[in-house]
């Protein structure tokens, strides 16, 4: 029997997400990113200030992230949809973001906070996850099989809702 991954499994087993942003007029832009995350599903990534998504975040600080696992031999398609405000990390948040990067990946990114502050060309960004959804069971409506989404609680965000 095929099974879907849980939100925690999706976060842990994937290293790339798709970030969606838009300008103040609503023109969308999506880009794949290497990410890390914390216990509250806040998503962190490193990007150049000159990248299109970074410029759009400066203009409109709302974003959404999709982490997706395509179907395989023993699993159904799994996806986690996150959304919330995006910001450039403060100096304290930069330290935390770097710690999470090294803990998760051991990648050779600069471990110095100063490399992501001040005159640096790159920043560490953080999306504070306010809402989260996973794929639900599809339902037939007439002769169409429609995908469904199920809201899931975000750790540390008790009482906050998408409504």
From TrEMBL:
Origin: domain of life: Bacteria
Where does the chain cross the membrane? Answer: none
Record-linked Pfam families = PNPOx_N (PF01243)
From the record, what ranges are coiled-coil? none
Q: Which residues form the Pyridoxamine 5'-phosphate oxidase N-terminal domain?
A: 9-93
Q: Name the chain's protein.
A: Pyridoxamine 5'-phosphate oxidase
